Amino acid sequence: MTQPNILIVMTDHQRADTALPEHPALTPNLDRFAAEGVTFTNAFCPSPHCCPSRATFFTGLYPTRHGVWNNICNDQALRRGLKPGVRLWSEDLAEGGYSLHFSGKWHVSVEESPADRGWIEHFVSGAQGTHHGWTWEQYRKLAEETGKPGARGKRQPGEILRPGYGTYRLYGTGEVEAVGALQHDETAVAKALDVLSLIGPHDPYIVPQKYLDMYDLADIPLPASYADDLADKPAIYGRMRAMRFGQLSEREVRDGIRHFWAYCTYLDDRFGQLLAALDATGQRENTLVLYTSDHGDYCGEHGLFAKGIPCFQGAYRVPAVIRWPAGIVNAGRRADPFISLADFGPTFQEVAGVASGATTGASLLPFLRGESPASWRDEIHTQCNGVELYYTQRSVMTTDFKYVFNGFDRDELYDLRVDPHEMRNLAGDPAYETVKREMCGRMWRFAYQEDDTAINPYVTVGLAPYGPAEAFGDRDRDRDRDRDRDREER
Prior knowledge:
Layout: E1 5-11, H1 28-35, E2 38-40, E3 43-44, H2 50-59, H3 63-66, H4 89-95, E4 100-105, E5 119-125, H5 136-146, E6 159-160, E7 168-169, E8 171-173, H6 180-191, E9 195-197, E10 205-207, H7 209-212, H8 235-243, H9 250-280, E11 287-293, H10 313-316, E12 320-323, E13 333-335, E14 339-340, H11 344-352, H12 365-368, E15 380-386, E16 390-397, E17 401-406, E18 412-415, H13 433-449, H14 477-489
Parallel strand pairs: 1-9, 1-11, 2-13, 3-14, 4-5, 4-9, 8-10
Antiparallel strand pairs: 2-12, 6-7, 11-12, 15-16, 16-17, 17-18
Helix pairs in contact: 4-11
């Protein structure tokens, strides 16, 4: 078989469940696409933020190894770009004979652009010259405006009042010509060739009215976890809800969800346009098409929206659907193993027949062939050092349990067998102490594998219930020896 074409469509903020045919969000093009491909139902990003997750996608590495931890486009950035020596899979494909074309959001580095890593640029956002956040002068102007008589009006539906920060608008309607995010995605679709990177359904959820009209507010339910009072979670979770999203009535929460779904429908229309353009070229059969997102959105779960330090699955699960008529066996399947954004780079390299370096991820090609690798991972990890507020957080999840180490507050432990919505925190329950220790061992073994430096033993910062030495339990001695040998071979 000749090298396949590869077409990547990456949205921003899209929850994994909205890409499933049974979800109420209307995505007919994606539904047909999934029926012709393989849907990965347990796909995760490494961090609840665009930049580290996109860096993982393009490098196959987790943040500890690629070096991007939070927003690269402002002065709170822990790093402005990738660590020296980190290589992108795009460079390997370019050297292997591929012509790579980029259209849309980059958000990997402000020190380099896609062109520096093998791409031909058609339209690039989230790159050098982009600033996310406000300047002091903007706050001065806000103070002048809000100091005027009558300036502090009543909160409108979908708005969140933030004194001194400016009013935040969660959702609304607007036509493409008037909404910057929609204009961005229209331009990205028009110029897309190989990689299409969109910025929807990122908040605020501003969509054309015709898409909102497809949904009846009375049909939108509150999430199962909406009733969570967050009392047994880290205090920042509750503060975020009480100060911000707690201003929204239940009706507004449902309306926010409705706008999010409508945004997904708008994006599905753009996706359909792209697939039709591909079919018109006659190259459908040997084109691997990936539909995914950089991270998810709480979308009302636990009373929250957007994404951030709360380590709930809504912000970490991402859509992951691959169609490749010439290379997939038994199309229309679902694959349930834990996969990561780090796995796509090794997949592209293998199907392209080019060499790959050491990565956190592994190729998904066996799953496309209908195989089930016996050695595939049985856990998924996340790494976060905060967003524009800094926090040290690591998590590990198996099919049965999820453990979150929060260096800044109480830890979390959920029994997913009976609590899939992460409502009851069991981290302080003595009956689960053995489970907690086992999960800490898993967490530290991954940290060792990924050269995580969040292991300082100083008395005021070494706050995990079981420390890094748990990575070297007797039962794991052979695995650690093999890992050391692999590192030496690298």
